[in-house]
TrEMBL record:
Residues 405-499 form the Bul1 C-terminal domain. Residues 43-66, 394-442 are annotated as: Disordered. It comes from Gnomoniopsis smithogilvyi. This is Bul1 C-terminal domain-containing protein. Gene3D superfamilies: 2.60.40.640. Residues 44-59, 426-442 have a biased composition (Low complexity). Pfam families: Bul1_C. InterPro entries: Arrestin-like_C, Bul1-like, Bul1_C.
Length: 563
């Protein structure tokens, strides 16, 4: 049904009484048009659908123009999303505040905050814990605030800030009970940013679960005190900007591993056979020590290599049995992330961390990164044969051990082309002789030197650290594949540390070019001798001393004798 509005005063067709309520808006609009002299408008037709579209457009316009909001921004100098800060790095910039209406406030707070967060499973619901281990407050002078303290409409307030990441945390960051001061020292070190890959800040996966994260951020907040004396301050505005921190970490002392530490396996013995039903050929023992730490650059993009040494001892049951052939060595880095709802009293990687069960509200997440496998010609393997012989003397007898190269290993070593970039080396060094052998037995030994290179192009590795509720450790899983008729494999799990060199240090941990290197002890002694030789001397006589030396009995040159 349509209504027609003629020129002049509008009217409603008497044949459409039901349209009276629907056309009230149009009637009022036409009435206003007639009042302002627009009576010569041509007649137009307005349908019901047109009226509904007009009504919806009015309401949509009202929704599209809300009350203008204020804006607060944090700008860091020379910053980009994936930039990494380290120990003693400055973090400076400005906070800009722009308002669209006058806002009364009392104070502005700019902080650099470091927090660790964990999420553990509970009986009824997950438990979330947050530990604030770092809070640096930027002092804002009174002259920075406007007078009166009102953020005026359209005006921008700019406040500079400057922070320096500390080397260590304050004692208040870790005040819970610990088993030893070593744990306290570890907890007072700055932990690295972790879990940032899930938030899109790291470029590569940092091997962290979503149940544990370490976050550094700059927070800017505008506060207003309540009208009454009672109550908490009102947060008017807030802005947060996260940064990535990779603090400097030095190498710690090697761990003392025992049978009660299920995470690591430093030695393993395996019985070798030609096949499953044949008799035993002998036993092979593979052992190793904890390798030196892998040092990361301050930006975490490169790492200095290290070497792991594996010692192999083969004890044959028959004197003519030959040592097994080594076909390949595979290695991978395993990252263990420990997290808990409560603080750690000890190092979680020592002992059985998960023995406490669900009541302790603890968690362990592990993931691995494989390293390339190396293969080579077994002719490059050099085994040494140790023979025990008994020598008698007048007072007793002792046992000595003679060494000779294995018969099959006397052929000339030929340079072999490496089949992998992993560059596993087997060197002809003589490892320590085994201490548990019987008189007249034969033992074959060799050593494998395994270079370790982190694939930093594929993954982000954070350093080994221990904080109050989050820890990260690494283990090197090494598998030695043997060809002894029936293929055998022997595996070890070695502790390995990942450290971060300081920003002023070089890639190998040396002192940077901008700092003067300290001399060695020999150089210091030599320099002192040269300085003593070139020291200026004054030739002359002191007052009261005769020209002759030793003229008085017992007199020393240059000194007076009294009494």
């Amino acid at each position: 049904m349509e209504e027609t509005y003629a020129s002049g005063s509008p009217y409603i067709t008497p044949h459409n009484p039901a349209a009276i309520n629907n056309t009230n808006l149009s009637v009022h609009l036409m009435s206003l048009a007639s009042v302002f002299g627009t009576t010569n408008m041509p007649p137009r037709t307005v349908s019901a659908s047109t009226r509904s579209e007009a009504s919806s457009s009015l309401s949509g316009h009202a929704r599209s123009t809300p009350f203008p909001k204020s804006d607060i921004q944090i700008s860091i100098k020379n910053h980009f999303k994936t930039k990494t800060y380290t120990t003693s790095s400055p973090v400076s910039g400005v906070v800009t505040i722009t308002t669209q209406r006058d806002i009364r406030f009392d104070s502005i707070e700019i902080d650099l905050i470091g927090t660790s967060k964990t999420r553990t499973e509970g009986y009824s619901a997950p438990n979330e814990s947050t530990h604030t281990f770092l809070k640096l407050v930027m002092p804002i002078p009174e002259s920075t605030y406007p007078v009166p303290r009102v953020l005026e409409t359209g005006r921008t307030l700019t406040i500079p800030f400057h922070f320096v990441l500390p080397n260590f945390l304050t004692l208040s960051a870790c005040h819970h009970k610990v088993d030893s001061e070593l744990v306290r020292e570890q907890h007072l070190c700055l932990p690295p940013s972790m879990g940032s890959w899930a938030r899109g800040n790291w470029e590569k996966d940092d091997l962290a679960p979503h149940m544990a994260e370490v976050v550094y951020s700059i927070k800017a907040r505008v506060w207003r005190e309540p009208e009454l004396d009672r109550g908490r301050a009102i947060k008017v505005m807030e802005a947060v900007k996260s940064i990535q921190v990779l603090p400097a970490f030095t190498e710690s002392a090697p761990l003392t591993i025992s049978e009660n530490d299920p995470l690591y396996r430093m030695s393993r013995t395996k019985t070798l056979r030609k096949n499953l039903i044949s008799s035993k050929l002998g036993t092979l023992t593979v052992s190793a020590q904890q390798p030196r730490a892998i040092a990361l650059h301050p930006d975490g993009r490169m790492a200095a290599d290290t070497v792991a040494q594996l010692d192999l001892h083969f004890t044959p049951l028959a004197a003519d049995a030959q040592p097994p052939k080594i076909t390949s060595v595979a290695a991978k880095i395993i990252a263990y992330t420990y997290y808990s709802a409560g603080p750690f009293n000890s190092l979680p990687n020592i002992g059985d961390f998960m023995k406490a069960g669900l009541a302790a509200r603890r968690g362990l997440y592990s993931t691995s990164v494989s390293l390339p496998t190396a293969t080579w010609d077994n002719n490059s393997t050099s085994w040494f044969t140790h023979r025990l012989s008994r020598r008698d003397s007048g007072y007793g007898s002792d046992t000595s051990m003679d060494e000779e190269p294995c018969v099959q290993q006397q052929q000339q070593q030929r340079p072999q082309r490496r089949k992998s970039s992993f560059a596993t080396l087997i060197r002809t060094t003589r490892p320590p002789s085994p201490s548990t052998t019987t008189s007249g037995s034969v033992v074959h030994t060799t050593s494998i030197h395994l270079p370790l290179t982190l694939p930093t192009a594929r993954k982000t590795f954070v350093p080994t650290f221990h904080s109050c509720i989050v820890s990260r450790v690494y283990a090197l899983h090494v598998s030695v594949t043997l060809d002894s008729g029936a293929a055998s494999k022997v595996s070890l799990d070695l502790p390995v540390q990942i450290t971060v060199v300081g920003d002023a240090q070089g890639a190998a941990g040396g002192v940077g070019a901008d700092e003067e290197e300290l001399p060695s002890w020999a150089e210091a002694v030599e320099d002192a001798a040269v300085d003593e030789f070139l020291r200026p001397r004054v030739l002359g006589l002191m007052e009261g001393v005769s020209g002759g030396v030793g003229e008085e009995a017992g007199g020393l040159p240059g000194y007076e004798r009294h009494g």
